[in-house]
Amino acid sequence: MEAVEVESKGSHGGDGDRRTSRNDRRSSWGCTLLLVNNCLQNTSYFGLSTNLVNYFQVELHAGSKSAANSVTNWMGTSSITPLAAALLADSFLGRYWTITLFLVISVAGYGVVTASASAALQSAVFYAGLYLVALGSALSPVMVSFGADQFGDDESERGHQSSFFNWFYFSMNVGSLVGGTVLVWVQTAHGWRLGYGIPALLSVLAVALFMAGTGAYRRHQPPGGFPATRIAQVVVAAVRKCDVEAPDDAALLHECDGDDGVSTIQGSRRLVHTDQFRFLDKAAVETAGDKSPWRLCTVTQVEELKCVLRLLPVWACGIIFAAAYTQMSTTFILQGDTLDPRLSSFRVPAAVLSVFDTLSIMIWVPLYDCIVVPLARRLTGHSRGFTPLARMGIGFVVLTITMLLAGMLEVARRRVLARHGTYVDADGAEYVPMSIFWQVPQYVVVGAAEVFTFIGQLEFFYDQAPDAMRSVCSGLASAAFALGNYASSAIVAVVVRATARGGSPGWIPDDINDGHLDYFFWLLAVLCVGNFGAYLVVARWYTYKKTVD
Length: 549
What we know:
Elements: H1 2-9, H2 14-49, H3 52-58, H4 64-93, H5 95-119, H6 123-136, H7 140-148, H8 155-190, H9 192-212, H10 227-240, H11 299-325, H12 331-337, E1 339-340, E2 342-343, E3 346-347, H13 355-380, H14 388-420, E4 423-424, E5 430-435, H15 440-464, H16 470-499, H17 517-541
Parallel strand pairs: 1-5
Antiparallel strand pairs: 2-3, 4-5
Helix pairs in contact: 2-8, 2-9, 3-4, 4-5, 4-6, 4-16, 5-6, 5-7, 5-9, 7-16, 8-9, 8-13, 8-15, 11-16, 11-17, 13-15, 14-15, 14-17, 15-16
């Protein structure tokens, strides 16, 4: 931060310009290495995870149910560990050293997995390597926060920072595409030894690239200590002073002295007082005998908790979004399994169509960055085109359109089914005489929704989080996605129980030709509309964070 402030002053004319230019080039080089690193990590991760269930069945001789449970348990662990890494980065190690540590752990994990696959070692060894990978691959919230740290606070750099979030998500999807296709093909055609050895080599390369950029990184955000302690201190101090009247003048509340804008929380700027959650202001009211941090807190410490409380409703709206989004890997596939998969002499599995979602993202990211943002900037006057809240809201609307498209396709599919029945091909497969490629539009629109909402979440949670909690708050996005999966399961369970009564097969029976999957998609569209309405209320209520200059 200090480096950015010096650059922005520009008090030395040409020398300052040259210094700024050197720092810009250094920052660009550092960000480029981080994006390549992110791509390599995701290539390795998806190269391991995409075909993992087959490894359990073929090499470890697990049954279908046992293999599926092993994979879901591992993926569930992979969804939790990012919050642990983020907490470690914000509290104790800082982002640079946390990334370094977890990259080394991932190398160890991929090495153990490769050794196990090569030497046919016991399953316990493979599991040990697998869970080391789950721990070492937990870097997304820390990596994206560290990348965003490379930019300053002036308007030009904030524009570059917004662009970084777009390309970070782009690199993630490039990695998932390569890992989920090329490496899976290697595993199928050339065996597990090479198929898992390549991710191991890529993980080593990721460490080398990250270390190579050490001199180019800006590391101005030191760890600020355990955030839960500061939050607890505010709550305890406010409760202890519940009978104290908070003054109307915020200047009378306790804050550290100094004109540098730095708070008592290491590496954090002071925050401007806001009028929301006024009860918490009592924690910053000075009374006799206030010597303990559990009795008197600074305004910045109070505002830090207010920031988190303001983020939670926005975060909660993301859960329903994720529940609808996850249909891409569940009901979309059920729908596709009944459609004609033939493309000339090839048969296209329904799950493969998700590649159109990835390709859509890879097209939409440069379109958004190079065309949509400049056009929106002219219309809104905002330096980033849209505010993060507006950007996420657009994604909510786009995903609603996706559910409507899926429902319309299901109506059309059922009409074809009613008129022509099902066909049975030479392999004995039964399908409705309607091409599976009619699903492509809904996958493409899902990709557009991701570019607006998921990338908007990355930007929003980083931008609006307290300085000392940015990694943790960035991890909230992945937590919302995990909860969205649980919410989707709960919605399906409720629908099945409510509709499958009195001999009726319900909306989602084992054979969806007997059900009404279109009704389920209409229900999700209604939930998306209701969620968007709630989001508009939250967005209108939300107060953006402000720092003391």
